[in-house]
Design brief:
- Helix 2 runs parallel beside helix 4.
- The protein is globular, with a radius of gyration of 16 Å.
- The chain is of the alpha/beta class.
- The chain has 4 helices and 7 strands.
Length: 166
């Protein structure tokens, strides 16, 4: 784990009392001792928000190229229905609840890399738009600067900043 992951974990834990975090979360499309390449990942954090009934797949990157992050999002996009089913299977999320679980990628990068990431995500969205209804939603994008501990109040769990959806 690197420093930025710790900052993101702290933010996720403090931003909502209904958020539960699983750091370094393994995801396998099919259970196997040695899954085939491209069918398993270690997600930086899985944040499960009970109130929103949403599972956030959080990735943290400070790479200047964002190459590995975009590659991972592309892989998730190709396998999105299988990936969501694997999380339900492996983390015992009930499919019979009245409100179905939603799944949402959430990425954290330095503010200076945000325009680059936005451009690369637009290309990803246009390539997956013809895939039908089971497509990966557009990732939420936050910068490290937004999730610093000085930006939220841990006493009432309310962010000090207001952030429009990306």
């Amino acid at each position: 784990m690197d420093y930025y992951q710790g900052v993101v974990y702290d933010y996720l834990q403090q931003c909502d009392a209904a958020m539960f975090i699983k750091a370094e979360c393994p995801i396998q499309l099919e259970r196997a001792k040695m899954p085939p390449k491209g069918t398993s990942w270690i997600c930086d954090a899985m944040a499960i928000n009970i109130r929103e009934h949403t599972v956030y797949l959080c990735e943290v990157s400070y790479s200047k190229t964002l190459h590995a992050l975009v590659r991972r999002l592309e892989a998730w996009s190709r396998e999105w229905p299988k990936l969501c089913n694997a999380i339900v299977r492996d983390y015992l999320l009930s499919e019979s609840e009245p409100v179905p679980w939603r799944f949402q990628p959430w990425v954290f990068v330095p503010e200076t890399l945000r325009p680059t990431l936005t451009q690369r995500l637009a290309a990803l969205a246009s390539s997956s738009s013809s895939a039908g209804t089971d497509v990966m939603p557009a990732p939420k994008v936050y910068s490290f600067e937004e999730v610093g501990p000085w930006n939220f109040t841990p006493y009432n769990l309310t962010p000090r900043f207001t952030k429009p959806d990306a």
